[in-house]
Amino acid sequence: MSETPERAPDRTASGTDGEAAPRPPGLLALPSYLASHVARIGHEALVAAVGQHGLRLPHFATLTALADFGPLPQHVLAERLGFQRSHLGGYLDVIEERGLVYRARDREDRRRQVVGLTDEGAGLQRRLQAVAQESQEVFLASLTPAERETLTALLRRLLDADDRARG
Asked: Residue 7 pLDDT more than 60?
């Protein structure tokens, strides 16, 4: 005979009956824990949306940076995206093969490459931007438009502070 009384299984703790298992309250009190899990959900939606066009997220980021800033030296593009230069080179190879970007020698410094969008790349970037926005609408569907703006503003403030701290 056992010294501890038997008890019925705790269905809420196990996540049975279609209910999600509760997350540890101690972790739910940590904004970084919440942000990382929410970011994963949004990231998966964005990756899937971009992937429908045969590209990965770094390709989309590169096209978007070039659409926003215009042609840039390759090293500046890497810095603005937070990519390692060697990784950017590989991403550029893929989208250059597809005719989405061009690379040319910098007229001011022949040692550098300047990267820019082709007309086809600009058109695809506009379509991808719309698809990305749709994925975010689905991802943030449980928030009101005002809440979405507030969330975006707060996240931008954290990112801007980190950028300033890193120099």
From this structure: no
Distance of CA 2 to the CA centre of its chain: 53
- Kindly give the interhelix angle for 31-51 and 57-69, rounded to the nearest 10 degrees: 90
Residue 11 near residue 17, CB atoms below 8 Å: yes
Question: What Cα–Cα distance (Å) separates residue 89 from each residue in 51, 74, 78, 96, 125?
Answer: 20, 8, 9, 10, 19
What pLDDT digit, counting tens, does each position of 68-113 carry?
999 999 999 999 999 999 999 999 999 999 999 999 998 888 888 8
pTM to 2 decimals?
0.80
Closest CA relative to residue 132, chosen from 37, 76, 67, 35: 67
**DSSP per-residue letters across 6-21:** P----HHHHT-TTPPP
